[in-house]
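Example 3.2
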Amino acid sequence: MKSNFFVFTVISLFFLTSCAPILKKFKRKKRSTPPEVFLQPVEYPSLKNKELYSDYYFYLISWMQELKEAMIENISRKRILRACSEIIENFNNLKDMFEEESYLKKIGYYINEFSKIRDIYQKRKILSDCLRKKLIHKCEELEIQFRKDFSYKKIFK
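Structure, written as tokens:
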């Protein structure tokens, strides 16, 4: 009798409260669209020519040293190709800063020389020691010549 009464009360409570809370719990809700976010553009101060030039100058010097070390160690062709590509890219960035024809010709010369070095390493997987030493010497000469031609004191007198 007690068990029948218990079952009866559970069933009656179930029907009296109905399934609304259960249905509400499992009912799909419409997705609300997130509010549109408008970002205000921020104006950053542009670098001065001297600061920008010194950045490119030191990038070029460091990549030339990286190239020379990679060629001396003869570890990774990929590292050498990356260094050459970075040097060429930085020379192209440096080219935009100059308007004088003499500097543009010098930069064009450096781009051409480092492109030749990159092309040699792209075409040949294995280099002879003689050719490798010749390219190392060429890189050293280009670095010294670049330091003379584009020294900070010479550019900003």
